[in-house]
Description:
Blueprint: E1 19-35, E2 38-47, E3 56-59, H1 71-79, E4 83-88, E5 95-99, E6 110-117, E7 126-133, E8 137-138, E9 143-144, H2 146-167
Antiparallel strand pairs: 1-2, 1-6, 2-3, 4-5, 6-7, 8-9
Amino acid sequence: MAIKTMSASTGGDSKFSAGWHEMKINKAEYGVWESGDTTKNYIDLWFEDYPDNTNLRIYEAVNKTTNEEFKIANVFKYANAGILGLLKDPTGKKPIIQFDDEASGLVGNKLNVYFYKEKKTGKGYTRLFDDIAPTSFVGEHISFDESQVNAIKSGVEARFAKVEARNGSAPAESSDEDMPF
């Protein structure tokens, strides 16, 4: 008999496994997606310890009632990046976050990102869902505790399941070839 060694890993901790991953942003850039007469702004995020092709593209989305862009704004809110202060809204009901949306301000900050295995190609590639969640933090102007983070994660998972059920597979929105909607 010989003495041998083997990995103690169970295989469940891969940095590309499906589920939530806390990731540190190491690069962020704005861009514009164009198709015919249609344009859509987006922000691309790259992450520490991941290859450049593991980027997350988040397209702008506007609330039809308030006309406020919220999807890219949530990146700054959830990453606690560029937050300058809280202002009172005209009704006095809820505070408004004032922030600097310079992409470079995201670098070094963390987000929770949901990974999934896409079914579109049949090859099971790992993709990043474009809804994100904050990490738990206490900031100067805003904070998220663990229960708030978990509630946001649950909402993201519900949206992912809804998109997956509707499309047969969640969109691989971090790809340059896919449409944003």
